[in-house]
Write a structure and sequence with these properties.
single chain; alpha+beta; 5-stranded mixed barrel; 18 strands; globular; disordered C terminus
């Protein structure tokens, strides 16, 4: 009985939270294009590290002639501020009590999973490797992954970002307001939630990434008041955004999801703290404005009608 009451309370809280979210979105106004300081939650900063850096450290991309090779010749060079570390550890099954979806013991090429230190103290030290080797690397480090019949390639598993020096969320927000006022901007930006992201790494296209936020707020630099806005995406280029990092937060957030690339969709996790950047660009996103159907739904067919030629159920929209 107690378990039933607890589940009912949890459902009621979820419904209330969803209702509040819908009310906030209904009242929110679209945001005009913006470029300036932004405070990102752990989920949002994790998405940037996944898209802007993680994909560009996958080994096959270092040897492909069609890739942009953003970090191909930067082993031993600084690519992030001092005190920032990035590892990818498929052997880690949970973080702070939360399960990590990118965990595995053996990769899809039969190589034991290994923890790989990619960036140490801001300096690039390694790449994610499968059995397909590149110059300077003699063996896989257990990151060959694929979905079903695609060819395996080096992919992320559990990407973990950490920093030696951290600040509380309130301190980061204060720094955001100070930087916004210093630059004479009417407001700063806080991104609390994200749904998805994408990037292009080939040399044919521009080297950029995009994120789809779900909760965006403008912040008044004088009062600190937050106002919900909508219909925006954030964009950037890897090298530019990483050079504008100002500070990191204390509490890490876990983002479990699926990553889609040449070898298919694989489960991954990103663990990252909040991050304050001096420059992030937001652009207007495509807004769907669905209209109600002009005609009522057809009557439900009887078993006899289901056998009539020409009366077929609609095709599934799902692929695969």
């Amino acid at each position: 009985c107690a378990a039933f009451v607890s589940s009912a309370c949890a459902c009621a809280q979820a419904i209330d939270s969803m209702a509040k979210e819908l009310r906030d979105l209904a009242q929110a106004k679209p945001l005009d294009p913006y470029a300036g300081p932004a405070l990102l939650s752990g989920l949002a900063s994790g998405l940037i590290f996944h898209e802007a850096i993680g994909h560009r450290l996958e080994g096959e991309r270092m040897g492909s002639r069609s890739e942009g090779h953003t970090f191909a010749k930067k082993i031993g060079q600084r690519i992030l501020p001092t005190g920032v570390h990035i590892t990818d550890d498929p052997t880690l099954e949970e973080f702070a009590g939360k399960p990590l979806h990118g965990a595995y013991r053996i990769d899809d090429e039969g190589v034991p999973a290994q923890r790989v230190e990619l960036v140490k103290d801001g300096v690039l030290t390694n790449f994610l490797m499968s059995r397909q080797l590149i110059d300077g690397f003699t063996h896989s480090n257990g990151h060959g992954r694929h979905e079903r019949y695609q060819d395996p390639m080096a992919r992320m598993a559990n990407l973990i970002v950490s920093a030696d020096e951290t600040k509380s969320w309130d301190e980061l927000k204060k720094m955001l307001c100070e930087e916004t006022a210093r630059r004479g901007l009417p407001y700063g930006i806080i991104i609390r939630g994200v749904s998805a992201g994408e990037t292009r790494t080939d040399q044919y296209d521009f080297q950029a990434f995009k994120g789809m936020p779900t909760a965006v707020y403008t912040v008044d630099p004088k009062t600190g008041k937050e106002t919900r806005v909508r219909d925006v995406t954030f964009i950037g280029t890897p090298l530019a955004v990483m050079q504008r990092i100002m500070a990191f937060g204390e509490k890490h957030e876990v983002d479990n999801s699926y990553c889609y690339a040449e070898s298919g969709a694989v489960p991954v996790a990103t663990v990252a703290p909040p991050m304050l950047v001096g420059e992030l660009e937001l652009q207007r996103s495509t807004t769907r404005r669905d209209r109600p159907a002009r005609l009522p739904l057809p009557r439900r067919r009887t078993p006899v009608q289901r056998g009539v030629p020409g009366l077929r159920p609609p095709r599934s929209a799902n692929k695969g």
